[in-house]
Design brief:
By secondary structure, this protein is an alpha+beta fold. It has helices at about 25-40, 90-100, 120-130, 145-155, 180-185, and strands spanning about 5-10, 15, 20, 50-55, 75, 80-85, 110-115, 135-140, 165-170, 175. Helix content is about 30%, strand content about 20%. Helix 2 crosses helix 4.
Length: about 210
């Protein structure tokens, strides 16, 4: 099954409207184009994205209802994510992944975690003892992993629930944290009393299963 491509539109400082014509190239528009191309080749590699580059002066009224008025204007799925300055690649990565995870599923076994999380280490041990292969995603070092994890977990746990690590999938099915993985594997797991606290900091007492 082919996943529907995420729509990305760039309105750059170019074009003509009536007697007015853009004659001076926009340096920030050029930078934004370069950032888009490089981010698609790296952080967003493998995610289907359709890029549509438009001339702002020729179609200035199209992005205006969405709040886009100052080129370069970058829109993801019709929503303005950046305008008036060179694009931040982190902003683009987050917006594209947020749109992508809403229309794509998970397959295989995955563990999203971080190096300083003891419960992530415990979950890795559970996987190893059970002889289960999995893909590890470091949410601190890999921005894509962080945005994918948040984008997939938030709809499950609710927008107001802090996202903790680890977050685990088995055979494409959301499992939860290390405690849930242990119980799934038939282990006698002592409940983690810190569950539900935000573990995205490096403070050990905030780490969650």
């Amino acid at each position: 099954m082919t996943t529907q491509a995420v729509q990305l539109t760039l309105y750059r400082w170019a074009g003509q409207w009536g007697p007015w014509k853009v004659n001076i190239l926009c340096g920030e528009c050029s930078l934004t184009t370069d950032v888009i191309n490089d981010t698609l080749e790296n952080e967003l590699d493998g995610i289907p994205v359709e890029v549509d580059i438009r001339e702002w002066l020729s179609e200035w009224w199209k992005p205006l209802p969405k709040g886009g008025w100052h080129a370069p204007i970058v829109m993801v799925e019709g929503k303005v994510v950046s305008q008036g300055h060179a694009l931040n690649r982190g902003v683009l990565t987050e917006a594209i992944i947020a749109a992508h995870v809403g229309r794509s599923g998970v397959s295989g076994n995955h563990l999203y975690g971080k190096v300083t999380c003891p419960h992530c280490t415990r979950a890795k041990g559970y996987f190893a003892d059970a002889g289960i292969d999995y893909t590890y995603h470091d949410v601190v070092r890999d921005p894509r992993a962080l945005y994918e994890m948040i984008g997939r977990v938030k709809p499950i746990v609710g927008p107001k629930t802090p996202i903790t690590v680890p977050q685990i999938w088995i055979d494409g099915k959301y499992m939860g944290g290390a405690d849930e993985l242990g119980r799934f594997l038939g282990l006698n797991v002592e409940p983690n009393r810190e569950r539900g606290q935000n573990s995205m900091t490096d403070k050990p007492h905030l780490a969650s299963s």
